[in-house]
Write a structure and sequence with these properties.
This protein has 10 helices and no strands. With 212 residues, the chain is mainly α. The protein has 2 domains: 73 residues; 115 residues, no CATH class. The longest helix has 24 residues. The chain is elongated, with a radius of gyration of 25 Å. The N and C termini lie far apart (59 Å).
């Protein structure tokens, strides 16, 4: 809009505006709709660079909200029933940039996204499908569902391998021993502490079976 009247870009913009004024759906209408949906007041008077930043921030936050909402919809995404416990922000996870040994990195990624051979997952694929409440751990006598929380914190068959993981968690997570099991699980898997993340990888490397 600030370009001279003879500039080709200014002329193209005016054509778009005229078409829109005559009820034609076009680029100009789409852009103004996006800006107005961003709920930015008096946007026509804002510096264009600053306006673009505000719109980008709004679009990012709105998309992040929708993604997190889908995480939390267990009916829509039953596979993410565990993931939603510790994934609350749309961001690059610290373990992805830690240069972990490949096997540790893969085990952490698969465990977090339920791409593993725990019965909470494999029971979905059996025929007939095993009800969730019947996908019990066969490695201990707890009579509990073999899900990620049970595997990481409770299953007695992995008690020895769990010692270092819990010890490190107690050191880096405030009040860890006073948390309930779900809080402990969430705090471990949402931690950005490099030593604790490494201990998670080591624990999974020693205990979890690779997905076939």
């Amino acid at each position: 809009m600030k370009l001279p009247e003879y500039d080709i870009l200014k002329k193209c913009l005016k054509i778009q505006m005229d078409l829109n004024a005559n009820g034609k759906t076009n680029w100009y209408q789409n852009v103004t709709n996006i800006i107005e949906n961003s709920k930015i007041e008096n946007w026509r008077s804002i510096d264009p660079v600053e306006l673009a930043k505000k719109v980008k921030t709004h679009l990012y936050n709105e998309e992040a909200r929708l993604i997190i909402s889908e995480f939390n919809n267990t009916d829509l995404q039953p596979k993410l029933r565990t993931y939603k416990l510790f994934k609350s922000d749309c961001c690059l996870e610290p373990y992805l940039t830690m240069n972990l040994p490949q096997k540790l990195y893969k085990n952490i990624a698969r465990f977090r996204t339920s791409s593993h051979n725990l019965r909470v997952e494999t029971g979905r694929h059996e025929s007939p499908k095993i009800p969730l409440e019947m996908r019990l751990c066969m490695k201990c006598d707890s009579n509990e569902i073999e899900n990620e929380l049970h595997f990481l914190l409770l299953c007695s068959s992995h008690q020895a391998q769990r010692v270092q993981l819990v010890s490190k968690a107690c050191k880096v997570i405030p009040n860890f021993n006073n948390m309930n099991n779900e809080e402990k699980f969430k705090s471990i898997l949402s931690s950005s502490d490099s030593e604790l993340i490494n201990e998670i990888g080591i624990f999974l490397n020693e205990t979890i079976q690779p997905k076939s």
